[in-house]
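hi! just following up on the protien thing from before. the input was this:
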Amino acid sequence: MSCLKCLKYTMCLVNFIFFICGAAVFGIGIYLMTSSRFSSMLPSLEAMNIANSLFIIGIIITCVSFLGFLGSLKENRCLLISFFILLFILMLAELATACVLLMYEKQVIEFIDKDLKIGLQKSIEKRKNGTVVNDDWDTVQTTFQCCGIYNSTDWLKNIPDSCDTPGIGNRTLIWPQGCLSKLKAAFDENLLSAGISVIVVCIIEVLAMCFSMTLFCHISRSGLGYK
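and the predicted 3d structure came back as:
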């Protein structure tokens, strides 16, 4: 019984920590959505710009961790089984995404390359009309110190300030490298870390599912919780 209580409160603590983290990510997403007008670099995934992605990820983490926290605290079978099912679905989605990226890497790169060109053209048009002040292109160019897809000529005569880099004296230079090559290099450099991160996340999810099912079975045998 003492081990089950330890398991129960461990689940409460871990899910509470994840709830706080999810709420923080959710808050950052809302802040970015309200402070700047973002548009996606990939038109095919227009709704998945940086702000919206953080917003959705924050909601998912917050909701799932809340179910786990409340279900373990109240020893509620319905909440625990809902927590288990949601984690299982998330794990399947993560593994499916990882498999698709590995198996169809060439096709994915070609799709991204084509979509980036469309997204860049849309960003240029919006900047001409004054409808976009800051978007995902500015964030990526500032972060990776790059300009355009291949180089600054992709922007034609509408090179944004995020392409600028301080030069000698008062001169202002343009980042020479394109963002596609920088993103590829960053992906290749962090491929091992990304793989390890996915494995660690899956292990945490499997442990959480095992713990929730253990509590669920104990509650069922004890005749406690939601019937």
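The beta strands are 164-166, 172-174.
The longest helix spans residues 2-35.
cheers
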